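ingest -> fold -> write
write: protein_1
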Amino acid sequence: MSDVAPQTETAVQPPSRVSPFRALVRWESMLLVLLGATILYGAAVSPVFLNSGDLFYICLNVGEVAIMALPVTLIVITGEIDLSIASTLGLAGVVMAEAFKHGWSIWAAMIAALALGAVAGVFNGFLVTRVGLPSLAVTIGTLTLYRGIAQVILPTDTIGGFPSGLANIGVVPIPGTQLPYSIAFFGLLAVVFGVVLHMTPLGRAIFAIGASQEAAFFAGIRVKRIKFMLFVLSGILSGFAGILWTLRFASARYDSGTGLELFVVTIVLLGGVSIFGGRGTIVGVVLAVAVLGCLQTALTLALVSSEDQNIVVGGLLIASVIVPNVAGLVRRTRVRMRSASARRQIGDRPQAESA
C-alpha cells in the first residue's frame, strides 16, 4: 500500500493547541530556572566557572552531542527514535581516518564520512518505514552493528596525523570569540531546524505524524517518506559529528563517542519533546543543551566522578519522562473534577417553574 492517501479538504494542523502550547512555555520557563540554578551551583563550587576559558570548554564538550540532538528531536516528535547515532559517529570517524590513511585528500575523506552516515541512515529508515520494524529495536541493533563494523575496520589501533589547520577546528575558538566551531555549527543548524519545524508545512506534517500517524496518512501526508528522510538526515549529521569529534581528538578510534546516545536522548526529552511524539520545540532543546553543558562542567569542577555524573544524567532522563506525564495526569484529573462538579450543579439546580 502506498504511503500517500487521497488529499482531503481539511488541513492538518499540528497538535499544539492552546493548552499544550502553554505547557511547553511553562516547560521552557522551568528550563530557564534550572539553567539559572545550575549556573549558581557552578559559581558556588568554583570561582572560575563560566569565565571565558570555561565557557569555551562547556560549549566544546556538548558540540557534537547538540548537533546529533537536532535530527533526533524531529524523529522523536514523529513518534520514533534513533539510538544508533553515537555508533554512526564512531564509524564515520573511522571511515574518514582510513580513507585519509590510504591517500585520500582530507576533504574526500570527510565526504566519505558523510556518505557513510547517509548510508547508515538509509538502512535504519528502510527497516523502519519499508520493512515495518519498530525503530527502537532497529536502532538498538544498528547501534551494535555499526560499532562492530568500526571495530573490524580499526580493531585496536588509532589513526591520527590530520592536517593541523583542520585539526585545530576542534581545539581552538572561532577568532574573536570564545565559541568552538562545533557550537557555531549547532547554532546555525538550530536556526534552520527551528524554522523548518515551526514555520513550514513540513514541520506541521512532522507534528501531525506524531499526533496521529493514521490521521496524517489519510490527510495526504507522506508519512513513510518523511520518516525515512529524517533517519537519513540523522545519519548524515551523526557522520558530521563524527568528523568534528575525530578532528577534536586528532585521532580516530572504533569506540569514539560510546554512550553519547544517552546524552542525546536526555537533551531531547529534557528539552520538552514528548517521548510519545507530537510535541516539542527547538528552543527547548537548545536550552537543554545549555543546562546539560553547564551541569557537566559544574560537576567536574566539584570533582564529581564521571560515573556519578552518569547517575545525574540518568536521573534527568527519568525526570524528563515522569514530570510531563504526572503534570498531564494532574491536568486531566482537574478537568474531570470540574466537569463532574458542573454536572452536579446542573443536576441540583431546581427546575424552572412552568409558565
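write: protein_2
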Amino acid sequence: MKAAGIAEGAALPKSRSGLEEALVAMDGVAVAHVEAFCCEQGEPILYVGILERGTPLFEYRPEPDGEVSLSEEDAGAYAGFAAALGRATSEDDLAEDLTAGHSMMRNPDCRAYQLRFAEIAEQRLENVQAVLARAADPEQRAAAAYIIGYAVNKRVVVGDLQAALRDASPSVRLNATSALRAIAVLGRDKSLGISIPATWFVEMLNSVVLADRLAGSRTLNLMYDEFSEGTMAQIKERALSSLFEMARWRHLQHALPAYLLLGRVSGVAEQEMAAAWEASERDQMLARIEKLLKPVTAKKK
C-alpha cells in the first residue's frame, strides 16, 4: 500500500475517490473500493478492496431503469421502520424472532411496522416483486427487498431475493441477505421444500465491498449446516484466496467467519478451530489449513 501513499498509523486519506483512483492506476488493479470502519482499540480501520485483473469477480446485475414504485403509503412504512430501527439500535434493542421465516422484533415500534409489511406482502406482492426487479430508485429496491421477505409463501420469493443479491446497491444486497437468512430458519423444516442455493453468497466473498464479504461469510456459516458437493467445489475453486485474506484480518470479529469457513472446507474439527482461536494460534491453524488444501491451491495457480 505504500505505492498508494497508505501507511499504518497514518491519518485516514482525505479523499476516498482520490485513493481509489490511485489504486486503479497501479499495474494489475482492475477495481478498487476503500472504506473506513470504527474501530480496533479505538483506532479506525481502513479496508482496501482490490480486484486484480484475472481474479474472480463478484459481478452486479445492470442497474434497472423502470418507473415502477411502491405506493407512497408502503414506502412511508419502510421509512418509518428505518427510523424506528435506528432508535432501537441506539438502545441496543435488536432482539428478533426468525422462526416464521421473517424478522419479528421485540421492539414494539419496529414490530408494528413489520406486521404492516406482512400485510403489504400479502396484498401487493406483485408490485413489491416488480419494484425489486425493475425500479430505477435504489431506495425503492431496498425497501422492496426487505418487505418481500414477509410474503406468506416464502418459496415464491426466494428467486427474487437471490437475484437481488447481485443488485448494484449495497443496501439492496444487505436487505436481501437478511431476508434469505430468515427464510432459511423456516426452511429447516424440510417438508416445506424451501431451497436456497449458496452460489451468490460464495461469490460475495470476492467482492471489493466489506459488507458483501461479511454477509457472504456470515451467511454461509449461519444458513448451511452442511455444504453440498457443488458448494464445496465452488468455494475451493472461487473463494479460497479471499477466505485466507479475510481470516487474517486484524479485526477479529470480521476475521472469524472466514476462519470458521476455512475449517469447514478443510475438514478440521470445529473444536480444534475454536481451541486454536482461543489460544491466539490463528496463524498456526491457517498455515495447517493451507497445507491441507495445498493440492487445491496449487491447481488454481
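write: annotation protein_2
The longest strand covers residues 29-40.
The chain has a mean pLDDT of 89.
pipeline exit 0
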